């Protein structure tokens, strides 16, 4: 599976006596699917910032005593997958630094494409880097532009400096002793949402993270590309940093990354995936007995495929919900073992059946190969793979750790070769042309780079 980026969550209580640490942890739990390597929080009581982070999933990093010990009425949180930098503790976020006797913290979702160039510039000026994460460039950038204490930095000016200097992909939370600044890049690669209730203000990578809180009369909106939001003294201020309208929303948020109950880029994720499954069924019909989804992200697409084809949907693969998403583990051998840990075939459902196996995408082909092997071991008569997205044929440098092109199975092999490699009776994808036709004018707002060769075409 595809490697993900990160998840952001922030909370601000309008009552300064309330400790938001527990709420930030709950928000990170709701975003756990966006990163399982590390988790962290940084909170402020208006005077000082406290930071706590560690490797692993949220429940392994935090416990009740931590939520009671780390106190503040506003703060930020982060769950991490390493798109840039090694998977180790020092790279866990939020990244908290000290400048002019004040601490400030940063949580970042995205990837700084010009990071190598910026790092060289700062190192020549004498800067020392303590991590291998591109996020560490941001405090160096800010302190080199603002010579006063961080609490006195103007939010709009912070947004302008970052917009001018780094790019193209970032959603940022910056925590200061007196405020939170929220930034989204001008292309809007990653989703980012703002929620205001009677008692608090929240920010999250996906709006589904707000659902754990009472939301009566809540005002929820997507933070605009190129927008800076300041949360200070219980008041929200918005600044237009870059009025760019050439959006590049990552379509893989719709295909795979986001939770099905989220609404990203103006679309409900479950309904979009169901639509993709319907497209796949109409473009790639097959005579079969049952449709089986690869759980969990393939379920909505499989439902759409079943509806459009008239072939009944069955749960031929059961998912162990206590095992993390296999793509999260950076170690490829561990990821192979993770397929068998995560998915269990139901022999009584699949035996002697012609199966349509529906999944959201194929990147390396490692996962689907082992799934087909398990299905055949349990008596599947035929296995026809249907992928509810176009072929992934190109890398991504904007917040998703897609491997080198040589590691992408669809970039290096023909459909026939892939069928042989994964031992499938057939394998079909949605064509990029069909996808664009279905999206209509909305297709212009999406980044589809990973589906296109360097000359702008797919390798069908």
Chain-wise SSE layout:
Blueprint: E1 7-13, H1 21-30, E2 38-44, E3 49-55, H2 58-61, H3 64-69, E4 74-80, E5 95-99, E6 102-112, H4 115-124, H5 137-145, H6 155-165, E7 168-175, E8 180-184, E9 193-196, E10 200-204, E11 219-222, E12 227-232, E13 235-240, E14 249-250, H7 252-257, E15 263-264, E16 267-268, H8 269-283, E17 290-293, H9 299-309, E18 317-319, H10 332-342, E19 343-345, H11 347-350, E20 354-359, H12 366-377, E21 382-387, H13 409-412, H14 415-422, E22 426-429, H15 432-439, E23 446-447
Parallel strand pairs: 14-23, 17-20, 20-21, 21-22
Antiparallel strand pairs: 1-4, 1-10, 2-3, 2-4, 5-6, 6-7, 7-8, 8-12, 9-10, 9-11, 12-13, 15-16, 18-19
CATH homology superfamily of the largest domain: Aminohydrolase, N-terminal nucleophile (Ntn) domain
- Contiguous low-pLDDT stretches (5 residues minimum) are 456-460
Tally of contiguous helical segments: 15
Amount of helix? 25-40%
The major beta sheet can be summarized as:
7 strands, antiparallel
Task: Give the count of structural domains.
Answer: 2
Describe this protein's structure:
The strands form six sheets. The protein has a seven-stranded antiparallel β-sheet with strand order 3-2-4-1-10-9-11. A six-stranded antiparallel β-sheet has the order 5-6-7-8-12-13. Strands 17-20-21-22 form a four-stranded parallel β-sheet, with helices on both faces. It is 28% helix and 25% strand. The chain is elongated. By secondary structure, the protein is α+β, with helices and mostly antiparallel strands. The chain has two domains: 7-247, Glutamine Phosphoribosylpyrophosphate, subunit 1, domain 1; 269-451, Rossmann fold (3-Layer(aba) Sandwich), CATH 3.40.50. 50% of the residues are buried. It is built from 15 helices and 23 strands. The protein has helices at 21-30, 58-61, 64-69, 115-124, 137-145, 155-165, 252-257, 269-283, 299-309, 332-342, 347-350, 366-377, 409-412, 415-422, 432-439; strands spanning 7-13, 38-44, 49-55, 74-80, 95-99, 102-112, 168-175, 180-184, 193-196, 200-204, 219-222, 227-232, 235-240, 249-250, 263-264, 267-268, 290-293, 317-319, 343-345, 354-359, 382-387, 426-429, 446-447. The two termini are 21 Å apart. Residues 456-460 have low confidence and may be disordered.
């Amino acid at each position: 599976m595809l490697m993900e980026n990160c998840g952001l969550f922030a909370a601000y209580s309008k009552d300064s006596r309330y400790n938001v640490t527990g709420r930030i942890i709950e928000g990170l739990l709701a975003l756990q699917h966006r990163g399982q390597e590390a988790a962290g929080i940084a909170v402020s009581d208006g005077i000082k910032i406290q930071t706590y982070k560690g490797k692993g999933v949220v429940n392994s990093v935090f416990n009740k005593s931590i939520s009671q010990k780390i106190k503040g009425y506003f703060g930020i949180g982060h769950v991490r997958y390493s798109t840039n930098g090694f998977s180790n503790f020092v790279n866990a976020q939020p990244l908290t630094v000290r400048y002019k006797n004040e601490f400030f913290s940063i949580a970042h979702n995205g990837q700084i494409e010009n990071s190598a160039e910026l790092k060289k510039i700062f190192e020549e000026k004498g800067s020392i880097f303590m991590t291998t994460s591109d996020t560490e460039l941001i405090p160096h950038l800010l302190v080199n532009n603002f010579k006063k204490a961080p609490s006195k930095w103007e939010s709009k000016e912070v947004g302008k400096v970052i917009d001018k200097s780094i790019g193209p992909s970032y959603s940022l939370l910056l925590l200061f002793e007196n405020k939170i600044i929220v930034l989204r890049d001008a292309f809007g690669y990653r989703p980012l949402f703002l929620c205001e209730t009677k008692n608090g203000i929240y920010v999250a990578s996906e709006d589904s993270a707000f659902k754990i809180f009472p939301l009566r009369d809540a005002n929820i909106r997507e933070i605009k590309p190129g927008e800076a939001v300041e949360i200070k003294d219980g008041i929200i201020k918005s600044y237009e940093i870059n009025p760019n309208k050439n959006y590049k929303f990552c379509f893989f948020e719709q295909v795979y990354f986001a939770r099905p109950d989220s609404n990203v880029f103006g679309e409900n994720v479950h309904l979009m995936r169901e639509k993709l499954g319907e497209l796949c069924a109409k473009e790639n019909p097959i005579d079969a007995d049952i449709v089986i989804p690869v759980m969990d992200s393939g379920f909505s697409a499989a439902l759409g495929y079943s509806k459009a084809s008239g072939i009944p949907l069955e749960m031929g693969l059961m998912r162990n919900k206590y095992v993390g998403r296999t793509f999260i583990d950076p170690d490829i051998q561990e990821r192979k073992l993770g397929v068998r840990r995560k998915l269990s075939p139901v022999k009584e459902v699949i035996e002697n059946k012609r199966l349509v196996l529906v999944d959201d995408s194929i990147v390396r082909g490692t996962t689907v190969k082992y799934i087909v092997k398990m299905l055949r071991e349990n008596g599947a008569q035929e296995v026809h793979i249907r992928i509810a997205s176009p072929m992934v044929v190109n890398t991504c440098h904007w917040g998703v750790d897609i491997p080198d092109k040589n590691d992408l199975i669809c970039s290096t092999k023909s459909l026939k070769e892939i069928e042989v490699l994964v031992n499938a009776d057939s394998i079909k994808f949605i064509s990029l042309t069909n996808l664009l036709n279905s999206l209509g004018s909305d297709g212009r707002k999406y980044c589809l780079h990973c589906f296109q060769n360097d000359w702008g075409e797919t390798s069908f």
